[in-house]
Amino acid sequence: MDFQLNDEQRLFRDTLRNFVDKEIVPVARDWEQSGRYPTEIVEGMKQLGLFGLAVPEEYGGLAADTVSFALTFEEISRGWMGIAGILGSHSVSCFMLARHGTEEQKQRYLPDLATGKRRTGIALTEPGAGTDLQGIRTVARKEGDEYVVNGTKMWITNARYADPLPVLVKTDPTAAPAHKGMSILLVEAGTPGFEVTQDIGKLGYKGTESCEVVLTDVRVPASQLLGGVEGRGMQQALSSLETGRINIAARSVGIAQRAYDESLNYARERTAFGQAIGEFQAVQMRLAEIAVRLQAARLMTYWAASRMDDGVRMDTESGMAKIFASEQALACATDAMRIHGGYGYSTEFEVERLYRDAPLMSIGEGTNDVLRGVVAKALLAGKATIR
């Protein structure tokens, strides 16, 4: 049992930390409030090779271990969680393509995705189907050597930059159970009938766009069917969401870390009644609670990531980490706001952004309530044990 990062992971983390402190932290608040797209930060992430995190080395990627993958999202979210979304959806899609794509698909897309020359996302959710993916209504009808796609997708990160965009569809709407008739098509940007219709306004998670995408008689070559076989889309998507939940758990740790950093500094610097507020027991209790929650969330996230590196199925572990870390992020952000008092509610301080960003972590990549059901079913069926 080793609770330490290895030398390579430590160097990777330090490089990321330096990038975040120099390129993200100084501009995050102003750019988030003005709605400015973080083009320069994206370019910096390209130079670090971060768009290739989930791409195998033979296609030009970093092929990062899962702990390093988690470190990336933790550090970037410490600076600005919205930026992590740009990289997160891209990485989940790359992982899915690398694991399930045909060799031709991998050769066509992965080298450019690894450098960030191409970017991608993943189009799963719809206006009437979020966590219940089997309820999607987007249909792909086979006509000769093409699929004709019609439907609407919602909350799609990177939609305006994705090329290709993997889209979950029903190739057999009559299949029972429904997942046996679901597939993923790789839709290239500029395909006629493929339209990004709007950016959806959000409480937090700014810096990256979340869009509505409408597909109207979009013709997609059959060669763009992920893996080349129909009916596997649900399994392909769910396997990629294991990494997505590690991603969300790590983002949550980043939010909690920033809440701790801001609270510690404020408790030392802010004075009241003639002394630093950190001298008051009530503030000390809240600060200690943030620290405990933060470290517990970090250890659970790294544990789940290391399990994935061991090559075992870890949907239970990733679900547990995501549930726990996301709820700690919200608790830490709330306590940070309380420590800051009135200033915590001000847009001049960082903690109000943390307070707006944290709730999404309990929703994204499967709501926590649904994931509790997933974990419980695995425990009851003996597929996972806690001892």
Describe the 3D structure.
- The protein has 387 residues and is α+β, with helices and mostly antiparallel strands.
- Helices cover 50% and strands 13% of the residues.
- The chain is built from ten helices and eight strands.
- The chain has helices at 7-24, 28-34, 39-47, 66-100, 103-115, 233-269, 281-309, 315-340, 351-357, 368-380; strands spanning 139-143, 146-157, 165-170, 182-187, 194-199, 210-221, 271-272, 275-276.
- It has a four-stranded antiparallel sheet, covered by helices on one side.
- The chain is globular and about 80 Å long.
- 51% of the residues are buried.
- Pfam families: Acyl-CoA_dh_1 (PF00441), Acyl-CoA_dh_M (PF02770), Acyl-CoA_dh_N (PF02771).
Average pLDDT works out at 96
Q: How are the strands of the biggest sheet laid out side by side?
A: 1-2-6-5
Largest sheet: 4 strands, antiparallel
How many E strands?
8
Strand content: 5-15%
List segments where confidence is low: pLDDT < 50 over at least 5 consecutive residues: none
Find the structural class using helix and strand composition. alpha+beta
SS summary, helix count: 10
What is the H/E order? HHHHHEEEEEEHEEHHHH
Rg, Å, rounded: 21 Å
Shape, per Cα inertia axes: globular
Distance between the first and last residues' Cα: 15 Å
Q: Give the helix proportion (percent range).
A: 40-55%
